[in-house]
Each structure stands twice: as structure tokens, then as C-alpha cells.
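Hi R.,

Here are the chain sequences for the assembly we discussed:
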Amino acid sequence: DAKTTQPPSMDCAEGRAANLPCNHSTISGNEYVYWYRQIHSQGPQYIIHGLKNNETNEMASLIITEDRKSSTLILPHATLRDTAVYYCIVSAPSGNTGKLIFGQGTTLQVKP
Amino acid sequence: DSGVTQTPKHLITATGQRVTLRCSPRSGDLSVYWYQQSLDQGLQFLIQYYNGEERAKGNILERFSAQQFPDLHSELNLSSLELGDSALYFCASSVDRQGTRGYTFGSGTRLTVV
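And here is the predicted structure of the full complex:
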């Protein structure tokens, strides 16, 4: 079962920042937060991941609260091409497997 | 192009038949993961292989099997197909066993069982 809670849908105006929240109140100390997105039946795309520090890459920023119970994915200047389902996943990169359990995600609609 | 190649892109077959889906991981990646996505179930983890060995199993039916070959490509075999097996099947790869730095997904195979 997915260990995260995300709003089912959100809207964002083109050019504005999109802030996608994720609740993971039962996260363990060794679990990372991963974000992926899926654009209309294409293969999911890795966006970013983090453990406890905030992370930034060319696609997005990830802000993790100090208690690690929630996080926010920030797309700084959303475009129409960012319309997608965004998945927040927690997973511990240890042991023999890297399987990820996807939940229902947040459908982000970027509007002109 | 993500670097993960899945063939065929589309497949239409009849109930009771058997099909094989193929995946070539990104160059240098040793892990291969298979996921099924149907309209009502979302993305479901099926199975993971690392360097030829099975590492984890998810909700994979007994009618389904997979393997990873010495050249690291993987095949997912689906037999005695039912209408409910119609779905998108995605393959993903990662360089390590734990997927620490994230996966790269292929573009999927759309299977339609009629």
C-alpha cells in the first residue's frame, strides 16, 4: 500500500509556480521521498528525490519539512507541458529491491 | 528517448493466447522492473530482476512469468490471456539494485485482449 497522501487534483496557471503537497506521516528514518510524473499514458518520468535536505534540479525543487512528515514539489514556472499525474513515493533504498509502490497521485492541470 | 526500449508498442491478441513483451534497459543499468497499468488499478509493481536474478515480486499472476537474460534484456511472458489483462505494461531500469537514484521508464507496451 502507498504510504503517501496527495490531493487528487490541482490547477495551476501557466507561468506560475506549481506547489504539489504530499503527506507521509509514517515515513521511516531511512526512507527517501521520490517524485515521478506521468504525462498521458507515457512512461512515468523521474523528477527528483530527497532524504531530509531540500533538493533542486533542472526540473523542480523538493522541500521536505524538518520532521519529514510532509513534502512539497515545486515546479517554478509551470508550462502546459507540465500537465500530468504527479506521484509522491516513499521508499527505503536498502535490501535487495528498489521496487516502488505508486499511489493514485495528483493530477496537475496547467491552464493558459 | 529515455534509453529504455520496449517492444512491441502495441499488441492485440485473443483470449487464451500467450504473448511476450520485451525490454532492453538503459545502457549500464543492471536492474529491470515491470509494472502493469490498467485503468482501474493504477501502476502495479509486478517483478524486479537484478543482473539476471529475481529480486522482488509484486502482484504478478501465476500466468505471468519473466526473466532477465545475460545481455540484461528482459522478457515478460503472459499466458492464458484474459480480457482483464488488457493494460499498459511498463518496463523500467536502474543502475543499482535499490533504484537509489530513481528509475528510467520505457514508453510501454499497450496490450489489448479481445
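The radius of gyration of chain A is 13 Å. Chain A touches chain B at residues 32, 34, 36, 38, 41-46, 49, 87, 91, 93-105 (CB under 8 Å).

Let me know if anything looks off.

Best,
T.
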